[in-house]
Design goal:
Helix content: 25-40%
Strand content: 15-25%
Distance between the termini: 31 Å
Largest sheet: 7 strands, mixed
Amino acid sequence: MKFNSYIFDLYKNSDHGKKVIESFKPEVGEDCYNLSVRYNPVTKTEPKDLFADTVDVVYCYYTSESEEPTTMQEARDSFMALADRGLRVENDDYFYPENYDIILAAIAPVSFAFYVSSEFCFPYLFQYNFFSLNKTADLFDIELPVIPKKSDYRARCEYYMDLCETFYTFRTENKLSPSELCAFLYDFAPNLWQRNAKESTPRASQAWFIGGLVCEEDRQLDTTFWQANAETKRGDILVHYQTTPISAITQVWIAQTDGVVDPFFHYYSNAYIGDSKAVPSVSLKELKADSYFAKHSLVRKSFQGVNGWSITSEDYNELLRMFRDKGADIDVLPKLYAPSTPENVHIVHERDVEEQLLEYYLHKMGYEEGRDYIRQLSVHAGRKVRVYSDYALFYSDKSGYESAKVLIEAKLYMKSNREIETAFVQARSYANLLESSLIVLCDKLCVIVYERQDGFDRDRYTKYYW
C-alpha cells in the first residue's frame, strides 16, 4: 500500500498520535532510553545508564560540537568520521578508531545523538528486530538498501546512513517532520501490520542446531530472539545445545520467523523462536560415546560454532533415538517433512517447472491459457519501460489498464531465503502494478502464496508442496 496522508493526518491529530509525536523530541539520554525500551522491548537488557550516557556523550562531545549538516552527504560524512576516527573525551577514548563492531552494538544511542542534531537522521530502534523494519517496508512499498556482506563491518556501520537516506526521502516526499517519521515507523505502521492474524506454522523441512545458555526468563516467553542461520525458515526445528557448564542438548524449538540478515547484529543473522519442548538431557560426553554421533563433525568440535549448524534428517532421527532411549515420548516432538519432486516429472530447467507442474495443475483446475491466464503479460512500469510477469491469472491485457488478480512467478529452485526474497520483491513490484490480490512463487518443490492484507509481507505466507 502507498502512504495515505489523510489517514496519517487523522492519526497525528488524535490525542494518542500527538503524544507519540511529542515523545520523539527527547531532551536527555534517559528520554531516549525510555523510547527505545517502549518501542523495542528487547533493548531493556541494555544498561540504562550506559545507553543514556552514550547518547549524551556523543551529542555533547561530537554532534553538537560539529557544524549542522546541510546535505545528506555531509550527515553521512559526519557519521562515518565518528566510526572511522573514534571519539576522545577528556583525553580518553570513548570510541576507538575503526572499532566498527562497537558502533554497531551502540547504534541505537548513537543514532539518537545524530537524530537530535540533524534533520537527515532518525533514531534506529530496530536493533535485534530487523523483521519489523522489513514488515513496515513491505507494507508501504519502501525499497530498503542492499545489506552489506558480513565481513565488511565498516559498510555495515554505513548502512545506518543508507537507511537515513531512504527514510529522509520518504519523509520529505510525504511532508513529515522528523518526529512524525518516528511516530510512523514505531507506532503507526506497526499497529497496521500487527493487526493481521498469525499465519499457521508450515511443516518443518529442515532442522538446525543452536547453542547458548537459556535463562529462566527465556523459558517462560512465547517467543525469544536467538542467533540462527539466515536460511532458517518459519516452522524449522531448532535443537538447542546449552553450552558450558551444562554442555548438553536440553530442548527443541520451532522457528517462528524466517531467518533474517541483520547488519547491526554482531552475528549477522537471527530468528525468533518459540514452542519450546524440553527433552531428556543428552550430554556432550554421551554424544561422543554414541556410535553414530562420535563421528559427527560438530560433536568432534565440541559444538564450537553450533549456532546455525545444519542437521540432516539422519542426524535428527538419531537424536530422536537417543531421546526415546532416555524415556521421552518422541511422538510429541516435531518431525521433519521431506519434500520431493512429484513422480513422473523430469525437471531440469525453469521452463520444466512451468510446463510440467504449474501449467499442468492450472489445466487440472480447469484454467485455460488465453482465457483464464496468460504468460508474459506486458506491463508499463514507467516511461518507455515494460516488464513481463511470468503468469497472470484472471487478467486483463487491455493496454494501459493491465491487471491480474493473481500474479505467479516460476523459478527452477529457490534454494535460499535470499533467492526467495529476491523473487518476492520482483513479484511484489509486478503485483502492485497489476493490483493483484495474491502473489504465488513456485519452484520444483513447492508453492509459496502471499495474500495482500493492506500490503504484501515477505514473512506472511502459506507454503504448499506439489
